[in-house]
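Q&A FORM
Asked by: J.P.
Topic: structure of Trehalose 6-phosphate phosphatase

PROVIDED:
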Amino acid sequence: MRPSNAGNLSLTRPLTAEQAWRVTSERAARCLLFFDFDGTLAPVMDDPTAVQPAPHVLTAIDALAGVVQRIAIVSARPVEFLREQFSSVPHVDLYGLYGLEHSHDAGPTVTEPMALPWVRPMAELADRARAELPPGTLVEYKRLSVALHYRTAPETSAVIEAWGAAQAERLGLRVQAGRMVVELKPPVDRDKGMVIGEAVKSAGCAWYFGDDVSDIKAFTALRAREQADPEFFGVCVAVANPETGQEVSSAADITIESPEALGDFLTSAVRALT
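REPLIED BY: S.T.
REPLY: Here is the structure written out as C-alpha cells.
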C-alpha cells in the first residue's frame, strides 16, 4: 500500500473515489484532468472511424472544465479527429498521436518538428500495408503513424505483428502495441508519459484516465511527480477491458468498468467538486 499525505490527509492506496474527489476539491483550481480517448471516453469499435464518446461524457467534461484548472485529451488519434469529437467542448487541450501533435483552446494544430519528415514515409507505408497484409486488416493512416488493426480478423495477429516488426526494422520506426492493433511511429521521443510529465510540473493535482498499455506511462509520470513533491496529488484511473484491463488496472488507483460507466462517474464528479 502506498501512503499519500495529499491535502493533509493520511490516505492509503488504493483510494476510494469519494476520498480522491474530496482531496481534489480542496485544490480544484490547480487540478488537471487528462483522458485517453479510445476505450476510455469512447468504446472501442471494429471501425475506428465510427467511434464516438460514450453517453454523458461530453456534458460532464464541459461541466468539469469550469471547475478545474485544465482538461486535456491525450490520445493516439490525430488532433483533427479529436477536434471533431470535442467540437462542443472547445476549452480542452488536445494532444494527438501520443503528443506528436497538440492544440490548445481550439487553436491551430502544432506538430513536433522532428516528426514532420516522416509524413511521406508513413503514407507510403500505409499503401504498402494495404497491398501486403491479409484481408481483414484495417490500415489506419494518421499522417504521422500507421495503425494496423486486426480486431475483425484476430487469427491474423501473428502475421500482422511480424510484418510490423519487419517494417519497423527496415525504416527505423517504433512499434506501439495496443488493443488488437500494432502501430508504427516515427523514432521521435514523444509519448503520453512525457506529455503528462511536462504538463503537471506546476500543478497541485492531476488525474489520468486510460485503458491501454500506453497509458501506464502516464500513470508513471503522475507517480514520479508525487515522489518529487509530497504536496502533489495524483490519481490514476483504469477503464476495464478484456484485452489489457488487468495490466492497466493493476497500475491504477481506481478502476471503472466501462466508458459508459465513466460517463456516470464523471457526472458524479461534477457534483462532488461543486
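FOLLOW-UP: Residues 5-9 have pLDDT under 50 and may be disordered.
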